[in-house]
Amino acid sequence: MTETLVNLSTPGQLLARTARSYESLLRATGHGTTIPGHAMRTLEMQINVFKDYYTTDTSEPLFRFDSGAFDTRLWNGSRWFRRAGRPSAAIPGTSNHGKGRAVDFQGLGGFDTDEYNTFAREATKRGWDNAEGKRVGEWWHWNHNPDTDTFDYEEDELMAAKDEIAAEVIKQLKGQAGKVTLTWATRRSIAAAQGKKIDDIPTEMALDDVLSYAARATFDNAALAIEVETLKAKVDKLAAGIKVDVTVDETAIARKVVAELAEKLK
Ligand SMILES: [Zn+2]
Q: I need a surface site. Which of 38, 100, 136, 222 has the fewest CB within 10 A?
């Protein structure tokens, strides 16, 4: 299977399987990167970064390891030395950033901080590791290995889509004049299903129309279409104070709906 580079929801690109994992990790932890070169880095960008971090001019202030040794790289027929105060960089053409499998994540705060440890748990589940980063003191540099990544993204994406629809149902419960405001992602799904442009899809729509689009398998996952159909009926029952049975799969939505209703009834 050849993988293509795809645009992320944040600036930048990654190979398709890594991008899918990145989006899931971003949803779960809130950590990603807003700097394009910190995900996929083209050869030109790698060369620019490398020349910024390393120099052939040994009269400049240079970085030294605790051992006193310089950090050197052989590239383009010359020996390059890492400048003082710069992070390490791979030789252009050999970086995992160039392969679209690495990301420098923002906001992790250092090795072994709470942010780092929470992030590491979620990242590890999704086939990411910080091994290469650890070797060079970079807690932010993580590589994704799709071959060992067994995370269930379909389930994860289904839950994210359901959360969105649940949020729209909840808005309706709050009596917003029978209309719901569509998120960009929902409009994109509807547009894709109808072969239209996103701009052709109104930003506001009657709830029943939204649900009927979903019911006609607007979304790739047929299970979502079925659940959306039953969701509104369940929400109606909840609103009327009737207890409804929910499957494990629907627990997150039910929890949200109940919490919102409790808030509304205060
Ligand atoms: Zn990196």
A: 222
Residues 9 and 57 in one domain: yes
Domain that holds residue 64: 5-144
Question: The pTM is what?
Answer: 0.61
Q: Which residues surround ligand 1, an ion (CB under 5 A)?
A: 104, 141
**Is residue 140 located within the same domain as residue 248?**
no
92 alpha carbon – ligand 1 mean position (Å): 13
CATH number at 96 reads 3.30.1380.10
Question: CA angle, corner 170, sides to 169 and 171, nearest 5?
Answer: 90
Q: How many CB atoms lie within 10 A of CB 6?
A: 17
Q: Given this model, what pLDDT does residue 117 score?
A: 97
pLDDT (tens digit per residue) in 17-46: 999 999 999 999 999 998 878 888 889 989
Dist. CA 141 → ligand 1 center (Å): 4
Cβ neighbours of residue 156 under 8 Å, at least 6 residues apart? 24, 27
How far away, in angstroms, is 105 Cα from ligand 1 center?
8
